[in-house]
Specification:
Length: 209
Amino acid sequence: MSQARKLSTQSGFTLLELLVAIMILTMIMTAAMGAVRVASRSFEAGVQRADETARIRSTANVLRRDFRQLLPVTWNENRRDFIAFKGNRHQVQFVARAPDSSTGPGYLIYRLAATPTDERNSLVLDFAPFDPGSDGFEMPANSGREFLASNVQVSFDFFGAPDDLDSPDWHENWLPDTAKLPTIVRMHLASSGQQWPELLFRVRFEGSE
């Protein structure tokens, strides 16, 4: 009987041992769940970053196409020459050839701007038919609109020599009365708190070098 009693007291776990084991298991499970949450957030951030990268790349391709087809349209008013291009920190407006897929006229007025939409800033491209025989190039009220990117902060500046006597430099504004096109349009872009590399668009047209 004494031997059986001795064996029975040595088998199994005590309550303290069970509590310690449960605490250790709880700590392991908590750490594992934390690791899963971190991995899930990292994955979601990676997917979001990849989506934003693809969106910015697509936007850049669209704008390169438009600036590549930009036309040096000019008109004379009160004995002064004006060019159909103007820009500031918030928008750029110019005249370019319509895309090959377009069924409309051969020339369009484009206005690229950061516009508040639904409490967010969106990069939009407005466009409308352009009459080469007209003076000026104001954007009509019934223009079309293409949304290029949403929830972004955008600003522009321009490189070139507004006057033949000026040296090329960066400018925050480019006015039609310069009668010359800038050489480069630079766009600064940020989204979701992330600053993207600046985008440079060389201004050129068919027949230019």
